[in-house]
Amino acid sequence: MLTLDHFVSDFVLPSTGDKEFSLATNVGKNLVIYFYPKDDTPGCTTEGQDFRDHWHAFTEKNCLIVGVSRDSIRSHEKFKEKMQFPFELLSDVDEKVCKLFDVIKMKNIYGKEVPGIERSTFVIDTQGRLRKEWRGVKVPGHVQEVLDFVAILSQ
Fold it and tell me: What's the predicted TM-score (pTM) here?
């Protein structure tokens, strides 16, 4: 499990835009990685829209945003286009990065226990160190809280 102020191991995931995302190629920027349960569902849509609507404020702070779920790239492409997200969505169908960040939790869905992504956000600094984490995120007000932290980090 990752701990604050430690370097995050490099990882590579398929990304929207027919690309691959690598943590190592983004050193030098602050990075917000938000994990969400499923494309095109109410909470995940609202969270993505909030990041979209604050995207310029994040980029002004030398900060990149990426969203991660277990959905396929095809699903991500549709979701990104529909919501007009200016940031990439990463596909973690094998849960490799979800496990690195320890966001897979047992959830009760219709009375049945199933593994799923716990809505979580992580900020990695320009050197590749984990600087802040939010777990069990409630969407209202969350993106502003993340932006406020990135602003402090960028000073």
Answer: 0.95
d(CA 91, CA 6): 24
Q: Which fold has domain 12-153?
A: Glutaredoxin (3.40.30)
Model pLDDT, residue 29: 95
Write down the domain spans for the chain.
Answer: 12-153
- Decide: 35 and 133 in contact? Cβ < 8 Å: no
Q: Give the C-alpha separation, 47 to 34, whole Å.
A: 9
Instruction: Single out the catalytic residue among 31, 33, 44, 65.
Output: 44
CB-CB contact of 99 with 24 (8 Å): no
Collect all residues with Cβ–Cβ distance below 8 Å to 130 and sequence separation of at least 6: 2, 3, 4, 5, 6, 7, 8, 122, 123, 124
Question: What gap in Å lies between CA 50 and CA 13, rounded to an integer?
Answer: 23
Averaged pLDDT in 10-residue chunks for the chain of 155 residues: 81 96 94 97 97 98 97 98 98 96 89 92 95 96 98 91
| Chain Cα centroid distance, residue 5 | 18
Is 63 labeled as catalytic in the residue annotation?
A: no
